Amino acid sequence: MKHWMTVALLGLLTLPAHAADTTDNGELVFGSVAMDIPARMMTRLEPFTEYLADTLERDVNLRLSSSMPDAIREVAEGRSDIAYLTPVAYIRARQRGNAEPLARTITKGEDSFRLMIVVAEDSPLEGPEELAGKRFAFGDEAALLQRATVVDAGVELADLADYRFLGHYDNIVRGVISGDFDAGILKDTTAYHWEGNGIRILHASPALPPYVIAARDGLDPELRDRIREALLAASPDDPRSGPAMRALDESYDGFAPVSDGDYDVVRGLIAPFD
Questions:
Q1: Per-chain mean pLDDT for the chain
Q2: Whether CATH 1.10.40.30 fits 28-110+209-263
């Protein structure tokens, strides 16, 4: 099957909404939040779009967004047919455009994830209560769950000496290792990757409903079900889907069924920041 990969980097390319007739073999647009730098996100997601394209027997075009608000808008307004979203991004896409969750990720056998407060490996800090007066690195300013996790750990943002929003997890890692920041917050899989390689985990959040692949409102129900089946069948040990799963995240074991109610705990955590 001939598979054309179109990538929209930093909003430089705009595809027409509903460019494909999703009742036939037209293209699908796969969007994503910007968790890493665009080149890395492309490397992670391109094999997965190819797996979906081969399984669904139609073109799947990758559309990277420069920020979480952009990714939310793309799927809420129907310019992305499906999207790989953080819990907060999914909740916003549900609020604004009735996005439907298809499957949630499984990380090291758990269909949940944690946010990790991290410090440099040689940092003297031993607990989150010692972060008062320290410099802290967050990711995207729209990632409310990161701030909620710090507050839930007992640290008011006003008690920090300074905090900045660096966008991508890679920037947070560099900022903490270099000493520009005393601590930062990472998704568990990124923290695991860097643990013992310049980073030490200081605090882990409670288990949270994980990243999710969601569909835009109005996507053809039969196609939506086929996408869900392809996601639930994916496994790192499977010859067809394995390379795609490992590229997406080496700590992912696959996908699990999901419902909107699974994300109510996140709604509660971010409510004070809305």
A1: 88
A2: no
